[in-house]
Amino acid sequence: MCLAVPAKIIELAGSEAIADCIGNRIQANVSLVPDVKLGDYILIHAGFAITVLDEDEAKKTWKLLEDLDNFNKTNNKVSG
Amino acid sequence: MLERINRAYKEIARASQVLGRTINIMEVCGTHTVSIFRAGLRDALPDCLKLLSGPGCPVCITDQGYIDAVLKFADRDDSIIATYGDMIRVPGRDGSLEQKADRGNIKIILSAQDALNLAKNHPDKKILFVAVGFETTAGATAVIANEALEKGIKNLFIFSNHKLVIPAMEALLGEKNHRIDAFLCPGHVSVIIGENAYLPIVEKFKKPCVVAGFEPMQIIVAIADICRQLADGKPQTGSVYQAAVTPQGNETAQKIINESFDIVDGYWRGLGKISKSTLKLKEKFSFLDAEKQLGIEFIPEEDLTGCRCGEVLCGLIDPCDCGLFGQSCTPDSPVGPCMVSSEGACAAWHKYARRKRRKQ
Prior knowledge:
The structure holds 2 protein chains of 2 kinds.
Chain A: E1 5-13, E2 16-21, E3 24-29, E4 41-45, E5 48-53, H1 55-73
Chain B: H1 2-19, E1 23-27, H2 30-38, H3 41-44, E2 49-53, H4 64-73, E3 79-84, E4 106-109, H5 112-121, E5 126-131, H6 135-151, E6 156-160, E7 162-163, H7 165-174, E8 182-185, H8 187-193, H9 199-205, E9 209-211, H10 216-232, E10 237-239, H11 251-260, E11 261-268, E12 272-281, H12 290-293, H13 309-313, H14 337-340, H15 345-352, H16 354-359
Parallel strand pairs in B: 1-2, 1-8, 3-4, 3-5, 5-6, 8-9, 9-10
Antiparallel strand pairs in B: 7-12, 11-12
Helix pairs in contact in B: 1-10, 2-15, 5-6, 6-11
């Protein structure tokens, strides 16, 4: 429940934003980060932006997600 | 990276030497518990450091009486229950929301906004929003409550059981037999409340409080920082999640939470009644308060027989010390809430540490 994802705002209308997280479009409410602008990177938790991030931090998490994705495509599965 | 790991090992050894015993650090957040297991940190850390899983999973700390109150509502045809997915498998006295889902009136939502949208799209139904979680989700609930007020939405009913993390940490330290030396503080709750929110704990109880994000390296650096503080005898607040956590936190979220909720005494599973630990909607939102409008009653209950989730949440026992663990209580057929949520301590132990235990 405490997971949050970083994403870049690509559409903004009032308190409603569409944000991009490695190609996924996520709807987010930005009421809790009122000064946010188009192009900003936000941290989304349960559909709400909870803070604004700098670009480097967002990209660091994306890189981790991509690594995970690439790992899943290999045969190096970890069995439970 | 290796340098930071070596430094952590040195600090852990130094702290354990100064204290003359094993160091107990409580990770408050369920997501930390899972990250620590997933990265294999628990095995990699020296024996003189013990990590305790704390009361930081919203599902796990929800009193059974609350779940039973929601379940009673599941049989009504004139209503829809909107809940975060984590809650649907938690067993109450009379089944779980998942077992009652065949009427099609239980909807899993990913955002509080979805609950409000359900109310807009189904004007003929009463929407019961199962509002659980810490400060991270309380802000979202406050936003939709205000929007409902503004737009005159009359069919949304919020059953608030939002919890505050600091009073729970203080309650744990107030127990005589606690064994907590320091807290690894939750990342995303701290985004809202800020690093400074832990100052009262440091001042009153002299326990280090360090915020970490969820990458293993951050957790290691935070543990090193905690051990340095313990060894030096200088407890402080700290954060290794500076990218998202500021000293003062998200003040907009704090403001809307303060303006929308009253802080009242509340029941926590395993911890019992904690004063000033729960958020209830303010008077101006009476029209969407489920307890006032729908007659939903929350009667705190004794936990299920044999289930030791309460002791697990207080860090008094490890999940495998419970007689039900892995026997009658498994992730497929959970008895207690710590086995239900994927971020519950028992579920994490069952997934990552069960086999190892069998070998011992």
